[in-house]
Specification:
The chain is α+β, with helices and mostly antiparallel strands. It has two domains: 246 residues, Collagenase (Catalytic Domain); 152 residues, no CATH class. It contains six helices and 17 strands. The strands form five sheets. A six-stranded mixed beta sheet has the order 1-5-6-4-2-3, sandwiched between helices. Strands 9-12-13 form a three-stranded antiparallel beta sheet, with no helix packed on it. A three-stranded antiparallel beta sheet has the order 10-11-14, with no helix packed on it. Strand 12 and strand 13 form a beta hairpin. The radius of gyration is 31 Å and the shape is elongated. Bound molecules: zinc ion.
């Protein structure tokens, strides 16, 4: 290509692009590095959208996820060795409803994303719903013969043509331009990632961002403006200095924890050490939903209630190993609930329950609610039963001691 064809297609806007590339060279054989300052990675959340045709072209949705995971992992590695402190994690994938192949240019796609155009708004909404700091979209655009990808500098949005989904391009666009990093801060020899495929094109190893703390083969990786006409320095020649925290904070990462101020039931098992025969009441510290010890062999230890195990549920109430019976309707009356408990398994009983909620489909013992086996001393073994609307947490899978949650029915 003559040099004039290597100029960015969007030189006067905030959109930056990469030319397509053909082949890659091997990473330079000799590395002479002065270690960059070690920084904890600051993660930004990335939402990935892709056109249905892209998934088809790579063999399905699973392969899309693998390709993007590799691109992000490569980006994170480049950031890590460049000492930028920036990293990404993928928080979700969405296959777009539309399949806008050749509907517009790559830059046009980025414009649609940033403008929440209805043709790509499902991707934008998906990113918003996840609180994503960065949103990218993979689709073959009408300029795909010459443009690999386009990204805002800085900004949230980027778009890739299918052949451009790999680590160096990803680091250049989403990891670079979206963070405010500039071509102009690149180093030409060795060619750093923001000049990848510029300045005569071709491969661009080593994949580093410029950082005044890094010396590569005796070359300080600080941009000097010698960058084949990509303009004056933007970050003082330091592409590592773009603020990782600013991008990660573009939309907050929401972590949902238990609402500890909204506890509606609490049972403590801290009674003085003593036996806890059937009928022992354990009061609800907040409401009036008392629990009761059923069966035989339970003891209070002073800090816990110890139950012996050793029987199944099909044992007469006078002989069954002790358990704690909670009031009916605790779960079924709620649309959502958080349960917190402390339990220590002392043996690996076959699917030994830590808790189980549900109801039998049989008639029950006639002493409680329909279908209820109350555990009242003197009642017979229930024989074979089936449960409905159940959920259980077991301490073991078979006799393999590991927690397991399941919905039997
Ligand atoms: Zn670029």
């Amino acid at each position: 290509m003559p040099p004039s064809q290597l100029l960015p297609v969007f030189p006067s806007t905030s959109l930056f692009c990469l030319r397509l590339f053909v082949a890659l060279g091997a990473l330079g054989a000799a590395l002479g590095l002065r270690a960059a300052p070690v920084q904890a990675a600051i993660e930004a959340d990335l939402a990935v959208g892709y056109a249905p045709s892209y998934a088809s072209s790579v063999g399905g949705d699973d392969n899309v996820e693998v390709l993007l995971a590799n691109a992000v992992a490569g980006n994170n590695r480049i950031n890590e060795i460049s000492g930028t402190g920036a990293a990404m994690r993928i928080v979700g994938f969405i296959k777009s409803a539309n399949d806008p192949v050749n509907w517009t240019t790559t830059g046009g796609i980025v414009g649609w994303l940033s403008g929440n155009d209805s043709r790509v708004s499902d991707v934008v909404s998906f990113g918003s719903s996840l609180g994503a700091d960065l949103v990218t979209y993979i689709v073959q655009s009408s300029d795909s013969a010459s443009i690999a990808a386009v990204a805002q500098q800085p900004g949230m949005f980027s778009s890739y043509n299918p052949g451009a989904v790999w680590s160096a391009v990803f680091a250049h666009e989403t990891g670079g331009h979206n963070y405010g990093r500039s071509h102009s801060d690149g180093v030409l020899n060795p060619k750093t990632v923001m000049l990848h495929n510029y300045c005569s094109g071709g491969a661009a190893p080593p994949y580093y961002f410029t950082n005044p703390s890094i010396v590569y083969n005796n070359v300080l990786l600080r941009g000097t403006g010698d960058n084949c006409g990509q303009g004056g320095l933007v970050n003082g020649g330091d592409n590592s200095s773009a603020n990782a925290q600013t991008v990660a904070d573009r939309r907050e990462r929401i972590v949902t924890g238990p609402r500890l101020g909204n506890v509606v039931r609490r049972w403590l098992f801290n009674q003085a050490a003593a036996s806890a025969p059937a009928g022992t009441v354990i009061t609800d510290q907040i409401g009036s939903a008392s629990a009761m010890v059923r069966g035989i062999g339970a003891t209070f230890t002073g800090s816990a209630l110890r139950i012996p195990g050793g029987t199944t549920g099909n044992v007469a109430a006078n002989a069954i190993a002790a358990y704690v019976d909670l009031p009916n309707g605790l779960i079924s009356t709620r649309t959502s609930v958080t349960i917190e408990l402390w339990a220590t398994p002392l043996a690996a009983g076959n699917y030994a329950r830590i808790l189980e909620f549900g109801r039998p489909v049989q008639n029950g013992d006639g002493l409680g609610a329909a279908g209820e086996y109350t555990g009242t001393a003197g009642t017979a073994a229930p024989d074979s039963t089936q449960s409905s609307d159940g959920i259980m947490l077991s301490a073991a899978v078979g006799t393999d001691l590991k927690p397991s949650v399941s919905r039997p029915s």
